[in-house]
Amino acid sequence: MMSTAQETTEHRDHDTGFFGQPWALAHLFGVEMWERFSFYGMQGILLIYLYYSVSHGGLGLPQAVAGGIVGAYGGSVYLSTILGAWIADRILGSERVLFFSAIVIMAGHVALAVLPGVAGVGVGLVLVAIGSGGLKANATSVVGTLYSTEDPRRDAGFSLFYLGINLGGFFGPILTGLLQSTIGFHFGFGLAAVGMAAGLVQYSFGRRMLPAAASRVANPLPRNRYLTAGIIAVVAILLLVVLVLTGVIRADNLSTIVIIAAAVAATAYFAVILTSRRIDATERSRVWGFLPLFITSVAFWSLYQQQFTVLTVYSDTRLDRTLFGWEMPVSWVQSINPVFIIVLSGVFAALWTKLGTRQPSTPVKFALGAIVMGAAFLLFLPFANGAPHSTPLLAIVGILLVFTIAELLLSPIGLSVATKLAPTAFHTQMVALFFLSVSLGTAISGWLVQFYDPKNEVPYFSILGGIAIVVGLGLALSVKPVLGLMKGVR
């Protein structure tokens, strides 16, 4: 007779109600779609809101400072996955943290919509960053609970989940950009709040269908340590407030601070997991195998996330956005990548499913992702140092197609491998560690804005593209030892 655990695994492996995947994936697909609608919708107009003049509805900040803020904010989103993962693994479980995080996100978008000036930006971005961090790590972790470790549909399922992300990423910038360009920034931010509310309602109905494993607390915090954890949280908040009030944390150094925080957090996380007595030798080896993937991921995201910093400035000033005599909003450029994701994610999912055990290993996919991303930056070179609005829209479409191919080789695969390599006691926190690579790369993308010079673009695009290619080639040459450390996980 089969045990209860075996019966559960058998049921999961034969549940094909959602395009061949477990039916519960539909609910996670939906909440992530709406969350990304609000996230990318807001981010599509955030940078120009910060640097547009007051007469045009913006705050009038210098472009370098505005870019640094956006990069720091994006990095903080992924940095806060640590908090969301810790609360999930030690106190509430992933499913509950996901639900409460959605509420916090909605509150942040409401603050951006109704509070004027710097106050709205400060309150709104902090709430959205904390909520998005909690939702991202835990949504990914919950998706992982829908599959057994041996289920060959796992990578395809994560690619389908990624489709939901990008449906939201497509419609968000289009609709918020339309409102921003016609009736104002705060109406665009308000639409982002409405989108998150829709996601919250949808998830409230579907959360009951998730497996019990989604609510399991992997490593419960003893009750007698709750007070200590609360005191640490209060002290940390007060310290941040003091650093802001004394000018240590400023708008012009936010990205640097987030880079340092993310690097320290990642180092500490690797150290804590690797030295824990709760993991065995095989789990420890797999964590070591994750390290080169982490480094490659940082290099990838530091280029990819420039869609929201340098590429936004480039689209505003250098790109010809005229369509049949009408100039499309700047934010619409950020909807090009999700279109390709929507089209190609199914292709990649089908490809990995068809290849099965013959598909390239995870280190090979990561290496190719970094190399292709570096090549995408080199594609800017034929248009370097051009006149205002001289770059054809079709050229950016082609470059973003290459961005997309690189993304599909690395990002959904990174989410999947993080759940496969995760020690049992650090399941959600291992996902957070992957997001720390995104945090570090995103903060670096904001920090790099200061080096972008529209009058001398060749060094910028060629050096950064070359670095990404070198990192990818380095991982490609190290595939065998990395797979050895991963102990059977491909």
TrEMBL record:
Its main location: membrane. Belongs to the major facilitator superfamily. Proton-dependent oligopeptide transporter (POT/PTR) (TC 2.A.17) family. This is Peptide MFS transporter. It comes from Microbacterium panaciterrae. It is a multi-pass membrane protein. It is found in: Cell membrane; Membrane. InterPro entries: Dipep/tripep_permease, MFS_dom, MFS_trans_sf, MFS_Transporters, POT_fam, PTR2_symporter_CS. Keywords: Cell membrane, Membrane, Transmembrane, Transmembrane helix, Transport.
